[in-house]
Amino acid sequence: MNVAASAIAGSSRHFLFRIRFQLLGGLTFAIFAPAIARIAFKPDAIYTANLQVTVIAAVMAHLAGFLAYRRIGNFPGVAAASYILPTFALSYGAVFLTIFFFRFEYSRFQAAASFTQSTLWYFGLSLMTRRLEPYRLVIIPGGDVQRLRALQGVHWFWINSTSTIIEKANGVVADLRADLGDEWERYIADRALSGTPVYHVKQISESLTGRVEIEHLSENTLGSLNPNQAYLKIKQAADWVFALVLVMVFSPALALIALLIRLDSDGPVLFRQQRMGYRGHIYTVYKFRSMREHLGAGSDKEKAITKRDDDRITRVGRVLRKFRLDELPQAINILRGEMSWIGPRPEAVVLSQWYETELPFYRYRHIVRPGVSGWAQVNQGHVAAVGDVMEKLHYDFYYIKNFSPWLDVLIVLKTIKTMLTGFGAR
After folding, report:
1. pLDDT: is 248 or 294 the higher one?
2. For 180, which of 15, 50, 67, 184 could close a Cys bridge (C-beta 3.0–4.6 Å)?
3. Which helix (H) or strand (E) is 176 found in, with range?
4. For residues 214 and 361, is the Cβ–Cβ distance under 8 A?
5. Residues 6+ positions from 122 with CB-CB distance below 8 Å
6. Can you list the alpha helix ranges (DSSP code H) found in 133-228?
7. What does the alpha-carbon distance between residue 422 and residue 348 come to, in Å, rounded to a whole number?
8. Are 125 and 81 in contact (CB under 8 A)?
9. In a domain, 221, yes or no
10. Pairing state between β 171-174 and 155-158
11. Pick from 120, 121, 111: which is nearest to 91 by CA?
12. Residues 375 and 340 sit within 8 Å (Cβ to Cβ)
């Protein structure tokens, strides 16, 4: 086949992109180098449990951080470099807190040096690889591919001839449901045989936008959206343990918030509302009351909708909402198995029934437990209008389709950012 265009010379990727180099280099720079430096100053340290425990723990933390960092970077709209610090902070924190809890002897200085150098190593790699090779995708003409023109973050190659080959492309994108013709089908087959991944246009669109389009059931069969049942069980157990720890450790803070609510305005400390939950079962959600009790006229649907700058929100309630502290009593719902920390946000029953009459497949979002925070919330914020809820439903279906611990970790990190910035709070 003739080569009419070539984006980049050469057939192999730069060594900086190789997982083996990234991981072995990180372990050497962040763990073995500090250990060798310590041994150089104090040779006897090599025989001590202090050094050995620190090195083993640091290797475990580094591996966990590296794996999480790579998986998180695969999700849409994620500037992976911005999650290096929090991801390794979580992995190192979890490992060394466990060691501290079991009273193993370790070097705090060496552990801190390992954590610092881990983040520096991957920050440096991120900067260099970003300059060397942006993500490249080749677009096959025909069908519904024009939608990709509006998407950012990828170097698109729009080709018009089957004699055009873009070397070192990360993938080929085509509308595989369109009638592309024999020549283009042979081109796609040749690219696949050469080792270049071939993607359907909708698959790429979902990956870059973080949304699953759900207007037609034939395009998203229920089987392809069924969440991983094993992870559902594991997640429920982890949710329960974390909720129990939160209630036990932070009970004084929860009592202080309750006191402030009572002093600020009349009414109960807890807000209770019927919500649509897991598998369509109705349950009572608990939150710290952040609004005055509604005394005016209006339908149940209108009362259930929180408007922007709602005048019912109290002074204490405004602070609670901004930092999501009003959500903490939902630990009770998690302990009762009605909710998860991460999942589609539960709607009031009256709103859920309204949405079900207006939006196709709305009920399918109840196939996983509702969450205190979710993929739609950290990407879109709070919404109530039917048009916005359709977009929210696209995000919810993306979460269900990509249901995994890595996506949950990403949502946790984005939720922390949301709490600090106030985006999505109302």
Report:
1. 248
2. 184
3. none
4. yes
5. 22, 26, 66, 69, 81, 84, 88
6. 182-193, 201-209, 222-225
7. 22
8. no
9. no
10. unpaired
11. 111
12. no
Q: Which residues contact 263 (CB under 8 A, 6 or more apart)?
A: none
Quick: pLDDT tens for 333-351: 999 999 999 999 998 998 8
Residue 109 lies in a domain: yes
User: Which bin fits 168, alpha (ψ -120 to 50), beta or left (φ > 0)?
Assistant: left
The tokens for 402 are: 């990509």
Mean pLDDT of 169-187: 89
Strands 136-139 and 171-174, sheet pairing: parallel
pLDDT number for residue 277: 93
Decide if 222 is inside a domain.
no
User: Domain boundary at 209, 241, 270, which?
Assistant: 209
Please, how many CA atoms are within 13 Å of residue 423, restricted to the half-sphere of its CB?
12
User: Same structural domain for residues 98 and 149?
Assistant: no
Print the domain residue range for 74.
15-132
pTM score: 0.72
Has residue 77 got a pLDDT over 90?
Answer: no
Res 134 pLDDT > 70: no
Of 209, 239, 257, the last residue of a domain is 209
